[in-house]
């Protein structure tokens, strides 16, 4: 069911500063910021060739990233994203196995314009998992 690792997401308190660190100190290819109001975040992607790093900054007070940053003020790893061929089949498989899909269980459009779902971290060894259909 799982395909390749699409990205590792890191929540940051200052997207501009974090982007500059990756771009200037590490020489990384950093995308332009993209606001995703439906997810409550602004993101940039650091392209690594074999995968990406996603930097997330809260967008608005109700952002799910805001509460994460209250607990982790310096930022930190937020989730991992795996590719799947069929998001609905993947959802049905994990829920049949007893895992919980966050939200209403229906895919939403993610930062890459593709359907995504998030899986409860308590069902995946403490890690928030995003599935993205490719």
Kindly summarize this structure in a few lines.
By secondary structure, the protein is an alpha+beta fold.
Keywords for this entry:
alpha+beta; 134 residues; 22% helix; 2,3-Dihydroxybiphenyl 1,2-Dioxygenase, domain 1; nine-stranded mixed sheet
Structural commentary:
With 134 residues, this protein is α+β, with helices and mostly antiparallel strands. It has one domain (2-133): 2,3-Dihydroxybiphenyl 1,2-Dioxygenase, domain 1, CATH 3.10.180.10. The chain is 22% helix and 38% strand. The chain is built from three helices and nine strands. It has helices at 15-26, 64-71, 87-96, and strands spanning 2-11, 29-30, 34-36, 41-47, 52-58, 76-84, 108-109, 115-119, 128-133. Strands 1, 2, 3, 4, 5, 6, 7, 8 and 9 form a nine-stranded mixed β-sheet that branches. Strand 8 and strand 9 form a beta hairpin. The longest helix is centred in the first third of the chain and has 12 residues, at 15-26.
How are the SSEs ordered, and which strands pair?
Layout: E1 2-11, H1 15-26, E2 29-30, E3 34-36, E4 41-47, E5 52-58, H2 64-71, E6 76-84, H3 87-96, E7 108-109, E8 115-119, E9 128-133
Parallel strand pairs: 1-5, 6-9
Antiparallel strand pairs: 1-6, 2-4, 3-4, 4-5, 7-8, 8-9
Shape: globular
Tally of contiguous helical segments: 3
CATH class bucket: Alpha Beta
Count of DSSP E strands? 9
Average predicted local confidence, pLDDT: 96
What CATH calls the topology is 2,3-Dihydroxybiphenyl 1,2-Dioxygenase, domain 1
Q: Biggest sheet, open or closed, and with what strands and sense?
A: 9 strands, mixed
For the terminal residues, how far apart are their CA atoms?
A: 12 Å
Strand content: 35-45%
Instruction: Give me the strand/helix succession.
Output: EHEEEEHEHEEE
Structural class: alpha+beta
The name of the CATH architecture is Roll
**Any idea what the CATH superfamily is called?**
2,3-Dihydroxybiphenyl 1,2-Dioxygenase, domain 1
| Tally of distinct domains | 1
Radius of gyration, rounded? 15 Å
Low-confidence stretches: none
Helical fraction: 10-25%
């Amino acid at each position: 069911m799982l395909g390749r690792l699409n990205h590792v997401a890191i929540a940051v308190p200052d997207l501009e500063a974090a982007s500059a660190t990756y771009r200037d100190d590490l020489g990384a290819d950093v995308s332009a910021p993209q606001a995703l109001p439906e997810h409550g975040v602004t993101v940039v992607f650091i392209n690594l060739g074999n995968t990406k790093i996603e930097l997330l900054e809260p967008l608005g007070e109700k952002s799910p990233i805001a509460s994460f940053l209250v607990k982790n003020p310096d930022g930190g790893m937020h989730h991992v994203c795996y590719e799947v061929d069929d998001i609905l089949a993947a959802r049905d498989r994990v829920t049949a196995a007893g895992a919980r899909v966050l939200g209403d269980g229906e895919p939403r459009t993610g930062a890459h314009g593709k359907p995504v779902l998030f899986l409860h971290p308590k069902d995946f060894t403490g890690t928030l998992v995003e599935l993205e259909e490719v």
